[in-house]
Amino acid sequence: xKLEAANLTKSYHQHEVVNIEKVAFGAxxxxxxxxxxxxxxxxxxxxxxxxxxxxxxxIKLDTGQGARSLNPLKSHEVARIGLIKTNQRIQGFDSLTIxxxxxxxxxxxxxxxxxxxxxGERDAEDIEERxxxxxxxxxxxxxxxxxxxxxxxxxxxxxxxxxAEPKLLLxxxxxxxxxxDITRTVMEMVREKVAGGEMRVVVVEHDLPLIWEYCDYVHFxxxxxxxxxxxxxxxxxxxxxxxxxxGV
Length: 248
What we know:
The protein has 248 residues and is α/β, with parallel strands linked by helices. The chain contains 9 helices and 10 strands.
């Protein structure tokens, strides 16, 4: 699994916010993407998932069956082939219960819509088991009801992405606003799925201790460009990262 971008740029009103000669995600286990505010991290995630159109450059996804250009695709088409992203801003399905939100996310993407839950494309008992396992791992106020607080909606968004079983999941500040114990449970779950070969994950975070603890490989983005990549210890020791991000 590899997601590659080459000569990727994005400009707004002649102001260039992303300029990446080459970067690859998905081949290094659980990966992190770090950088100061305004570095272009969220813009890069939008470009990779085709929510944002690039000014120039190529984006390709190789799932083991040959590389495929993502440039002609729309964001929902990219999601269907296995590349999805969590929402940085809370977006809850207020009309669906927690269970129904997860059932819908677990259903086959070829049969989209609420009725896909009952379409028989996947084993219903398997879906129910997976949904229950996820819900029971976290202290929702009402497991059979609706996500109420901002934190519960944030958590539900993450769980919807995990239960969808993407090939590559981009997590944009996934644990912001979550309690420490829930953050740890989420990250342990993510690490287990990556280690088991279920998916590849890239975590975009300002929480450096979380990045150092959980990530196998880290990309450092500053002023729209990838300036350094390596194992967490290498990134922490890098002079450019220290000067531009950690204020050392």
